[in-house]
């Protein structure tokens, strides 16, 4: 890298917060070239006014990233894009998207996270950060600072190899209390394909909010970025075009969503028992969909522990009215982990024969510290165990594997690179993956519409791409159900609204219109959602994906699950129907991301 100690760009960020001003008049794109060590701001394109989050990562990558580039090379592009409503007064709307060509799938990938990074970027008028290139010296580490005075790269070589908790402790002490952070742990620096990008919690202190899937942490690490620090200081929320009208809509919306989202008041961890009843709790590398120890994993036990150990349900970002995040304490009352969710309890727990939430909490803490996706790693270790390389339920063995990942040993790389890597290394053929990525916990054999999403989403087998928990969807409605949910989730991922808020396309249409003082029709909001999918599918086709990649593992078509003898034997023509837009009428606009 040509720069010496530090490269800075100042004086470009000045959102005035004046009521009545256009909410986006100062919006910018921040470009960071890690090869040259240069930064530049450019005006945000007017044509992209209603694009944010995932819609924006897809659009930038479609234009600027070679779909066949080396995902860990200089030509990959890492895009950081807050949701469209992030930084506004809309509750639970501050999620931030990260996007790049995935080292795990080889396709396009977007993963989003809570915390305050998204809101802070939007308050500063930074609609996107586009990171290209790579330092000439691969051993160099940098931090990217963004605040009201501008943006700059600072040396971070001293933090090489540092675990996420220790790094965030340092950053919390070094930067103002108003700052938030996105960081990568050792796994990201080592180019491990299951590496995540961690955003700090609402207090800006702990690395517990992960953009986990697809190995985007490895992309950030390959660019030499150890952390991004965002400090908006005392800048106010983004001003809506018509504050009075917007306040009325937000008040009504908040009341409606507060009531509707009560199902998440104990977090997704409380869904373990539900999944168990549905034959949808992956157990021992998915040899069963039920575990007799499911009640010991269920999040109801975590909530019951609060009285004795401390801990609580809390918001992961400012302004969240759902507050689904559990803050989990160890028996001695110290903080163990936060956001111990259903997917983690299922994959690191039942799938690996770990029988209590207490034990999974310890593993979750380690995954957050090393900086890896709990879904990919839980599925990978499940295959490792199924291949006879480790006993199911071996907690200390699993901890050792996570230490190996942090060290970058040969075994650590094999496991950290995910479920397909472990299958290849062990010669085991029961590998639950689509497009190179581990299948999320919700079981496609039981939930066929979700299976169609796993097969067709450019995201790979990701439950947040379009999840249906209805096991009774008729075969002739599978494509329409999956497509509709993929569109609704794409729109939510673009808005910054958390899926647990449960926004419909009509909700988003109304909020966009009021905030930007622009009439947004049903046709327009539907087209935005569809275009996200089209941009992502086009990227993947250019990367070399074909219909042959839209398949679940063959054994899932024959190895029946549970009393219903469920299999995933959906024909290719049903799956491929997802790629043509299907008219589902009113449901497209009224159905919500949380079902
Ligand atoms: S609903 Fe849960 S995950 Fe979503 S923003 Fe709130 S606390 Fe975070």
Tell me what you see in this structure.
It is a single chain. This protein has 595 residues and is of the alpha+beta class. The protein folds into three domains: 7-231, 4-Layer Sandwich (Aldehyde Ferredoxin Oxidoreductase,  A, domain 1), CATH 3.60.9.10; 262-277 and 283-431, Orthogonal Bundle (Aldehyde Ferredoxin Oxidoreductase Protein, subunit A, domain 2); 435-595, Aldehyde Ferredoxin Oxidoreductase Protein, subunit A, domain 3, CATH 1.10.599.10. The chain has 21 helices and 18 strands. It has helices at 53-64, 117-123, 164-174, 186-189, 216-222, 243-260, 272-277, 294-297, 300-309, 342-349, 357-370, 374-386, 395-407, 410-416, 419-426, 448-456, 478-495, 505-516, 522-543, 572-576, 587-590, and strands at residues 7-10, 28-33, 38-43, 78-82, 96-101, 108-113, 126-132, 142-147, 150-155, 180-183, 197-199, 209-211, 225-231, 312-314, 325-329, 335-338, 433-434, 437-438. Strand 2 and strand 3 (38-43) form a beta hairpin. Helix 1 crosses helix 19 (522-543). The longest helix is centred in the last third of the chain and has 22 residues, at 522-543. The protein starts with 6 loop residues before the first strand and ends in a 5-residue tail after the last helix. Residues 1-8 and 10-20 have low confidence and may be disordered.
Features:
single chain, 595 residues, alpha+beta, Aldehyde Ferredoxin Oxidoreductase,  A, domain 1, Aldehyde Ferredoxin Oxidoreductase Protein, subunit A, domain 2, Aldehyde Ferredoxin Oxidoreductase Protein, subunit A, domain 3, 3 domains, 6-stranded mixed sheet, 14% strand, disordered N terminus, binds iron/sulfur cluster
């Amino acid at each position: 890298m040509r720069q010496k100690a530090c490269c800075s760009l100042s004086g470009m960020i000045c959102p005035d917060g004046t009521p009545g001003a256009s909410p986006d008049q100062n919006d910018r794109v921040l470009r960071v070239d890690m090869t040259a060590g240069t930064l530049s701001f450019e005006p945000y394109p007017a044509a992209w006014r209603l694009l944010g989050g995932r819609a924006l990562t897809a659009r930038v990558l479609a234009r600027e990233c070679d779909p066949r580039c080396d995902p860990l090379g200089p030509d990959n592009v890492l895009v950081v894009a807050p949701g469209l409503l992030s930084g506004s007064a809309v509750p639970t709307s501050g999620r931030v998207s990260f996007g790049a060509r995935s080292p795990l799938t080889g396709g396009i990938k977007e993963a989003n996270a809570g915390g305050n990074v998204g809101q802070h970027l939007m308050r500063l008028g930074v609609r996107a950060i586009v990171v290209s290139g790579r330092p000439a010296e691969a051993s160099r580490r940098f931090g990217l600072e963004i605040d009201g005075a501008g943006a700059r790269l600072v040396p971070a070589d001293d933090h090489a190899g540092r675990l996420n908790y220790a790094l965030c402790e340092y950053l919390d002490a070094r930067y103002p209390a108003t700052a938030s952070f996105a960081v990568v742990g050792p796994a990201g620096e080592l180019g491990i394909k299951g590496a995540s990008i961690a955003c700090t919690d609402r207090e800006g202190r702990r690395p517990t909010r992960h953009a986990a899937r697809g190995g985007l942490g490895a992309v950030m690490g390959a660019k030499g970025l150890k952390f991004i620090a965002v400090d908006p200081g005392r800048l106010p929320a983004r001003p809506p075009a018509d504050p009075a009208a917007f306040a009325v809509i937000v008040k009504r919306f908040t009341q409606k969503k507060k009531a509707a989202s009560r199902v998440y008041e104990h977090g997704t961890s409380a869904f373990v028992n539900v999944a168990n009843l549905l034959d949808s709790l992956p157990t021992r590398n998915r040899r069963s969909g039920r575990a007799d120890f499911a009640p010991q994993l269920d999040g109801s036990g975590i909530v019951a522990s609060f009285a004795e150990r401390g801990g609580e349900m809390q918001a992961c970002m400012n302004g969240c009215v759902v507050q689904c995040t559990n803050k989990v304490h160890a028996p001695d009352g110290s903080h163990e982990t936060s956001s111990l969710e259903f997917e983690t309890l299922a994959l690191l727990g039942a799938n690996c024969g770990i029988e209590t939430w207490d034990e999974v909490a310890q593993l979750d803490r380690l995954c957050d510290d090393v900086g890896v996706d709990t879904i990919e790693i839980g599925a990978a270790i499940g295959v490792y165990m199924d291949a006879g390389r480790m006993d199911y339920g071996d907690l200390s063995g699993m901890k050792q594997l996570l230490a190996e990942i942090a060290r970058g040993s040969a075994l650590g790389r094999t496991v950290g690179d995910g479920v397909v890597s472990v299958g290849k290394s062990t010669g085991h053929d029961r590998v639950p993956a689509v497009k190179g990525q581990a299948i999320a916990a919700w079981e496609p054999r039981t939930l066929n519409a979700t299976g169609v999403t796993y097969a067709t989403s450019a995201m790979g087998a990701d439950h947040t791409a379009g999840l249906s928990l209805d096991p009774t969807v008729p075969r002739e409605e599978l494509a329409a159900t999956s497509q509709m949910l993929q569109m609704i989730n794409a729109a939510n991922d673009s808005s910054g609204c958390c899926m647990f808020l449960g926004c419909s396309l009509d909700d988003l249409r109304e909020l966009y219109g009021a905030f930007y003082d622009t009439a947004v029709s049903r046709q327009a909001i539907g087209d935005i959602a569809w275009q996200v999918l089209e941009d992502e599918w086009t990227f993947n086709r250019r990367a070399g994906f074909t219909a042959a990649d839209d398949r679940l593992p063959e054994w899932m078509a024959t190895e029946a699950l549970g009393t219903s003898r469920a299999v995933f034997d959906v024909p290719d023509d049903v799956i491929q129907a997802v790629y043509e837009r299907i008219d589902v009428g009113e449901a497209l606009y009224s159905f919500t991301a949380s079902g």
